[in-house]
Design a protein that fits this description.
The chain is of the alpha+beta class and about 500 residues long. The chain folds into 3 domains: about 5-90, Beta Barrel (OB fold (Dihydrolipoamide Acetyltransferase, E2P)); about 175-250, E3-binding domain (Dihydrolipoamide Transferase, Irregular); about 275-495, Chloramphenicol acetyltransferase-like domain (Chloramphenicol Acetyltransferase, 2-Layer Sandwich), CATH 3.30.559.10. It is built from 7 helices and 20 strands. The protein has helices at about 205-215, 235-250, 270-285, 300-310, 320-335, 385-400, 475-490; strands spanning about 5, 15-25, 30, 35-40, 45-50, 55-60, 65-70, 75-80, 185-190, 195-200, 290-300, 340-345, 355-360, 365-370, 375, 380, 415-420, 440-445, 445-455, 455-470. Strands 11, 14, 15, 16, 17, 18, 19 and 20 form an 8-stranded mixed sheet that branches. Strand 9 and strand 10 (about 195-200) form a beta hairpin. Helix 5 packs across helix 6 (about 385-400) and helix 5 packs across helix 7. The radius of gyration is 26 Å and the shape is globular.
């Protein structure tokens, strides 16, 4: 019997450390090659770590919640399968299993021999759909058992929900990455009465919609885990439980006044994504001289265009929002003002020389708030995508980020970033440029305001764009022309057809 120790690999990012978030195995478990051993959190994202060995887990060498250096042994696996007399008694598989940890091919075409054809690099972690899970078995129909009514905090009437196991995580291979959605109107109560909001397109059954209305939940805020990408009752229960926990935490936030102040201070370790984000933002703010400009935009025709897209058969089942038009506008405007899609490089070839590298491709970054902090995945070669393909890419990116499944490779190589602060009801802001880029556009909320059009004051859908630029690369004139071009598309989306 041979005892193999698995050392924490560099997950292809040049990182030096990672935290063991959760173990998926325990001593005595039998594992096969590429079975998931644990989840680790790097400075970039959460990654599932597969096993390079087959055998029996003998010991977990690092507890959960501990941050360790790359190269540290984290688990030991014996090559003897638990319960078998000897490894020789185990029949060999008909098709050899290739380990996930392959060698880098000599060229893009791939090689044979030492390189595993099609295999990712050591430590890259599985793709979102690479982990094989047992298929669900359809259970026989049974009457739904009611549980005690759920007491809501929104003043809505109590309801009864089925007693089922809860989950709020998107599963690999789940069509939720590109959900098929139906139309639902958000009618949320306000102090002044009921306001009919913008149309959201989310797939859910009528009973689930009723539950959401009773609880005051916007279905667009819920991570869908249904087999067809729909929001399920379990998703609503999980979302409501999380919301209640946040309210309980808010109600009990303030410490007792009788205690000393130093005992009423919560200390949160800075690590993982938060640590990497803080370091990157400080470096960006103090290395790139920021200049910011703002422009108010009449986005009424964008709103009309989005409404027509939602009704179009070509976009049936695809979530469409004004962010799609902004993304297309940014790509269009960058082609007219190429220097905003660039990188400033110091110490070229080890000298004191600097250069500006203008990118003739667009890896469009979308800043996303996730449970683990800010992430900026990007859409590769976004300039080559049609409007429909771009909409699908945005949907997949957002769903993956909310589910915490964004991989490090998806956040590399961005060239220009959009941050949608309007989703939180904010008018505008001065965003910090994503490191390695020279421009970022903040998209404010769109709401009706009085607007002067042809000498008359009428209500129009107005938004404010805020742009930050690296003044070493982008002068005031260039930044103004770029923002004016973006605004022009939002004011008249038909320009995209030119």
């Amino acid at each position: 019997m041979t005892l193999n120790k698995f050392n924490l690999p560099d997950v292809g990012e040049g990182l030096t450390e990672a935290e063991i978030v959760s173990w998926k195995v325990k001593p005595g478990d039998t594992v096969a090659i590429n079975d998931v051993l644990c989840e680790i959190e790097t400075a970039k994202s959460l990654v599932e770590l597969p096993s390079p060995f087959a055998g029996t887990v003998t010991e977990l060498l690092v507890p959960e919640g501990v941050t360790i250096d790359v190269g540290t042994a984290i688990i030991s696996v014996s090559d003897a399968v638990s319960g078998d007399p000897t490894p020789a008694d185990v029949p060999a598989p008909a098709t050899p299993v290739q380990p996930l940890y392959g060698k880098l091919p000599a060229d893009d075409a791939g090689t044979s021999g030492s390189a595993l054809a099609g295999g990712p690099l050591v430590g890259s972690g599985p793709k979102a759909d690479a982990v094989k899970r047992r298929p669900r078995k359809a259970a026989p129909a049974a009457p739904v058992q009611a549980v005690e009514p759920v007491e809501t905090r929104t003043g809505a009437p109590a309801i009864s929900l089925p007693n089922r196991s809860l989950t709020s995580q998107a599963r690999p291979g789940n069509p939720a990455v590109q959900p098929v959605e139906t139309e639902a109107v958000d009618n949320r109560p306000t102090l002044g009465g009921t306001i009919t909001g913008l149309v959201n397109r989310v797939l859910a059954k009528p009973p689930v919609r009723k539950i959401a209305r009773d609880l005051g939940i916007d279905l667009a805020d819920v991570v869908a885990t249904g087999s067809r990408g729909e929001v399920t009752r379990e998703d609503l229960v999980s979302y409501q439980a999380q919301r209640d926990a946040e309210l309980d935490q808010a109600e009990g936030f303030w410490g007792k006044a009788g205690k000393p102040q130093d005992q009423r201070i919560e200390r949160i370790p800075v690590k993982g994504v938060r640590k990497a984000t803080a370091k990157a933002m400080v470096e960006s703010a103090f290395s790139a001289p920021h200049v910011s400009i703002f422009v108010d935009v009449d986005a009424s025709r964008t709103m009309e265009f989005v409404k027509r897209l939602k009704a179009s058969r070509d976009f049936e089942g695809i979530r469409v929002s004004p962010l799609l038009i902004l993304a297309k506008a940014v790509i269009w405007a960058a082609a007219r003002n190429p220097s905003v899609n660039a990188t400033w490089v110091d110490n070229v070839d080890g000298t004191d020389a600097a250069e500006i590298q203008v990118k003739h491709y667009m890896n469009l970054g979308i800043a996303a708030a996730t449970p683990r902090g800010l992430m900026v995945p990007n859409i590769k070669d976004a300039q080559d995508l049609s409007l429909k393909e771009l909409a699908l890419a945005l949907n997949g990116l957002a769903t993956t980020a909310r589910a915490g499944k964004t991989q490090p490779a998806e956040m590399q190589g961005g060239t220009l970033t959009i941050t949608n602060i309007g989703a939180l009801g904010i008018d505008t802001g001065t965003p910090i440029i994503n490191p390695g880029e020279v421009a970022i556009v903040a998209f404010g909320t769109i709401k009706q305001k009085p607007w002067v059009l042809d000498g008359e004051v009428i209500p129009r859908w107005i938004t404010t764009l805020g742009g930050s630029f690296d003044h070493r690369v982008v002068d005031g004139d260039l930044s103004a022309r770029f923002m004016a071009d973006v605004a022009a598309i939002l004011e008249e989306p038909a320009l995209l057809l030119d």
